[in-house]
Design brief:
By secondary structure, the chain is an alpha/beta fold. Helices cover 36% and strands 20% of the residues. The strands form 5 sheets. An 8-stranded parallel beta sheet has the order 6-7-8-9-10-11-12-13. It has a 3-stranded antiparallel beta sheet with strand order 1-4-5. Strands 2-3 form a two-stranded antiparallel ribbon. Bound molecules: magnesium ion (MG).
């Protein structure tokens, strides 16, 4: 697939759709729908192209190993201003570059009179298909970037968050040989305040002991559903706590709600759902099963829904963790805009790739630094 082909397709679609009146989704009439918004001063144009992320190191978790992550970059333009978005597509989620591009090809943003109609636009995207979360997230992120730029303000400011409360992020160390794990830990231990360790295979104890031979930093562990026995999992969690682990992510298979509730009730560490939670509508089913939820933009369709999930989780007394996929600084910087509202951040996807397209969120002395420019605050590399 070539970038030019996709741009050509979407521009043609936008031009055709631009002939219609400015009618936000579900509106009863153009007049009612347009109230409160300025008259159309331009069309919303969507562009997208595949972009494969190169991983700096081979990345292994409990269920797979890989050296690249497929992705699609998105641009939304309005009044000559461009917002950037991105779909990151780890293969285990069941999406492909083709499926993301097929979804984006169906999207007609030119029917909306304003990019500020985020609720209408995201509801419209859900009418195209029930899934395709990464593609929807790409559009959501680009629209947020665009509207922030149109307002001349960074998103964290529009959301009302204090960027100095963004806090620390973990850096993830995948499952590997002791030599590689030791080397990776040596490379990153001085730059972060907490590390996240992938576990869930037979090498868990070896992984933790290897890391402990290098650093005393607090650790989070992510089993990626890799543990199968709840009693053994509980024993391991006690051992992990003795070894400075502070949080456990997705210990058991996501379907095992009763066993996970059993584990969470007895666990000395918080148990956070990742694979078991995708979108806002999924939270009620895991209420009381997990201590918290790991919100990722690529799972939940973007910032608009992520903010609703944060509010819901808070109302239910659940911890909020913000995660990411391997992503460029575009999607990672979008997630970082929400960091001041989270208990725990795992926003390191841009640090795991070697071909970033943007400069955005950075990590200084282990703390997330959200850029202060309008929208996402990105600069193209
Ligand atoms: Mg996880």
């Amino acid at each position: 697939m070539k970038r030019r082909e996709f741009i050509g397709t979407t521009l043609a679609a936008a031009a055709a759709a631009g002939l219609s009146a400015c009618i936000p989704n579900n509106a009863t009439s153009p007049q009612a729908a347009g109230a409160g918004y300025p008259a159309r001063s331009g069309k919303i144009i969507l562009r997208f192209y595949p972009y494969e992320l190169q991983l700096a190191h081979n990345f292994t978790v409990a269920s797979y190993s890989r050296t690249t992550t497929p992705g699609v970059q998105v641009e939304v333009e309005y009044d000559g201003i461009v917002g950037y978005g991105e779909a990151s597509i780890p293969p285990y989620l069941g999406h492909t570059v083709e499926s993301v591009c097929a979804f984006l090809s169906k999207v007609d943003l030119a029917q909306f009179c304003s990019p500020f109609l985020l609720e209408d636009i995201m509801s419209y995207l859900d009418t195209i298909s029930p899934g395709d979360a990464p593609a929807k997230a790409a559009i959501d992120i680009a629209l947020h970037d665009l509207t922030g730029k149109l307002l001349g303000a960074p998103l964290y400011q529009i959301f009302g968050y204090n960027p100095s409360k963004a806090g620390s992020t973990t850096f993830t160390i995948g499952i590997d040989t002791p030599e590689v794990v030791r080397q990776k830990t040596l490379e990153c231990a001085g730059r972060f305040r907490i590390l996240k360790i992938k576990v869930g295979l037979d090498s868990d104890e070896q992984m933790i002991r290897t890391i402990r031979s290098v650093t005393d930093l607090p650790l989070a562990v992510d089993a990626n559903q890799g543990w199968k026995d709840r009693s053994k999992a509980l024993d391991e969690i006690y051992w992990l706590k003795e070894n400075g682990v502070v949080l456990v992510e997705q210990p058991l298979p996501k379907e095992r709600l009763d066993d996970t509730a059993w584990l969470t009730e007895r666990s000395p560490l918080p148990i956070v759902a990742d694979e078991a939670i995708q979108r806002l509508k999924d939270i009620p089913a895991i209420k009381g099963v997990y201590s918290g939820i790991n919100i990722k933009l690529m799972k939940c369709t973007g910032l608009l829904e992520a903010r609703k999930m944060i509010a819901y989780a808070r109302a239910e007394g659940m911890m909020v963790m913000l995660g990411c996929m391997t992503e460029t600084s575009c999607a990672c910087t979008a997630a970082a805009q929400l960091a001041p509202a989270a208990d725990f951040c795992d926003i390191d996807g841009n640090l795991l790739i070697s071909n970033d397209l943007f400069k955005g969120v950075t990590v200084s002395d282990g703390l997330l630094q959200i850029p202060s420019g309008p929208g996402l605050g990105l600069t193209k590399i």
